[in-house]
Amino acid sequence: MRNDPACGTDDVSRSSLTHQGTIMEQRRVYGKSHWYHETQASSCPSEILPLVPEAAYVEDRFLLELTLPAAQAIACAPWLAAARQFYDFLFPHDVTVTRLQTFSAYDRLSTALTVAQASGVQRLCNHYAARLAPLPGPDSSRESNGRLAQITQYARQLASSPWVISSLSRQQLDEVGLTSHDIVLLNQIVGYVGFQARVIAVFHAVLGLPVRWLPGMPTLDDADPALFSEHQSLWQADLPAIDPLYASDAERQALATWQAEPVLCDLAPLLAQDAALLDAFGELLIKLPADSEHTPLAALLSARINGSVACFNTLAARWQAPAGLPDAARNGERALQAWSHNAPVVRSIIQAVQVLTSTPDRFSAAQLTHSGEKHLSTQQAINLLTRCAFDGWLNRLRIAFGNALPLAP
Asked: 186 with 154: CB under 8 angstroms?
């Protein structure tokens, strides 16, 4: 494994993350066997550097200096440019905090690091840790610590177990002082960094590089099958939509543009609270390749694993072939494996999507090779899995912003 700035070394015992008045440590806990960062305030040494400080200064802040083969770089150029632009909107060098937009640069990068750690992709952890380290943290008051702890808990849950997010989770964010704009931004950060982690994992596999996951990261279980017992549901937002009467010209324009996009029609009134982010999100959506015959399959599996009932039921209602697959997916992994026993192409896609969605840190060249043996080219596999990673982002937004309500019989 090469020792580049974004990837770093495995020796982490000598480094920790600091900010003014607060220590954000990366340390080994042998009982848990993984790395994590603290959110509570404590004493601060004079100067402690992050594990890989140069990882903060990479030129490509989406792929983090991964060099793609020429064919893939050209084929993926449009959506990679959109993904890099989205990064710049989420993590600018200067952030102005206002009464309605209270998320500081520290809050943004701390959240990103939490999601990166939940994914287990070390290249990503090194980058966000290095960007976070020099920033001044919040004061050490009980209120600030409680706010940061709640944000961190929510981000970790949405990143690793999205199906546990509920109306209570949103209420708890409101109770620690987050505004509607803050909540939209928080969920976009979680979705984006999760997407970034999975794309990096796919390109690591293309290049034959291990992701070098953090020791002992657990395999995440699929969402409970009981969530999918209702075959028809209606998604209902649990956050206030933007009011066109009070919206800015940019917000009204973004809403009009992207509410016409079928995938975003119900999310746009919420996402329009940050017009620049909504425009960037829409641009990324339309530039992603979505012409694969297997795209609906990957989207269905992503929704099932992440627990997005609204996304799953919408896809299942439009499903055409192969027959029986949505019902098998509803019943869980064993039923799905049994159904796909005599469908080798579908089975290889199922396996790749499951690994990428549940444990991106363990995605490897083996999944791509197996898909290739089943008549998918490398670029076709990249297109399919990249779109699957974006579907995970959409799943999390629908889970975060509302509830899937069963339709009355």
From this structure: yes
